[in-house]
Amino acid sequence: MRKVNLFIIDDAREEFEKLNAVVGRQRSRGIKSSEEMQLLASIKKKGELLKLNPTYGDKIPREYWPKELAERYALTNLWRVGLTNYWRMLYTLRGDKIEVVCFVIELLDHKQYDKLFKYKKK
After folding, report:
1. Which residues pair with 3 in a beta bridge?
2. Where would I find the H helices in 53-79?
3. Domain boundaries 3-116, corresponding CATH code
4. What residue spans define the domains of the chain?
5. pTM of the full predicted structure?
6. CB distance 108 to 116 below 8 Å
7. For site-directed labelling of 19, which of 9, 12, 67, 85 has its Cα 20 to 30 A away?
């Protein structure tokens, strides 16, 4: 069994840190449940699932990859995991026979996801 490391990077890291700060403030005010807390828990849970099975998500066919992501990260694969409240986690895998590295590159709400993939409402 190969070791799996997970890293949240770039825009996804920024979004994760903002969310963590919001949840921290909510907890300090005594809030026990919120959409932000649910989302943070969902991200952490899916991250643990990816460490156990890096192909847990849905593989996105190459023809659907947003050009800016493909170029920015020199993608060879792109995966999607659904999160709570219609958020999405996009990640890519790198590795060899010994280790797999899972890079979370985007954490997006439904509207941002549709915009990135250029989905149009009909």
Report:
1. 99
2. 67-73
3. 3.30.2310.20
4. 3-116
5. 0.92
6. yes
7. 67
